[in-house]
Give the backbone structure.
Amino acid sequence: MTNEELKTFISAHAPETVFEESQFLNAIIPAEKLYLLAKTLRAADYDYLICVSGVDWKDHFMVVYHLESRKTKNVFVLKAKITDRVNPAVDTVCDIWRTAELHEREVFDLFGIKFNNHPDLRRLFMDDTWGFPLRKDYVDDVTIVQL
């Protein structure tokens, strides 16, 4: 599937998608549209979830999924925009791509973004006394130098 075909395919399933071009095609969707679109993309041969990461943009969060079709070798980036900074959440995709399970736990541990229906959403690196250190509003009163 070419990027133009992929744009048409995604727009048919999520018309509010915003597209950006960089090294890969980027598709930005509202978080509540993620699960159904992810399931549709999986059925359309995007069978390899390369990675999942989180981004704090100060006024919203993004969960970023790098996906590849091993059949066509096409790679693109799907971004779920989360506007709720108080209780950031998005549906898990680990029942679609098993590799998401640990990636989502890492994003939860570092950003505090919850993944609805995740089978084992608990801290991965830190204990429950820590905040979420990759958030822009995180303050460590003990060890971090203030910039």
User: Anything to note?
Assistant: The longest strand covers residues 48-56. The two ends are 46 Å apart (CA to CA). The longest helix spans residues 100-111. The helical segments are 3-13, 34-43, 100-111.
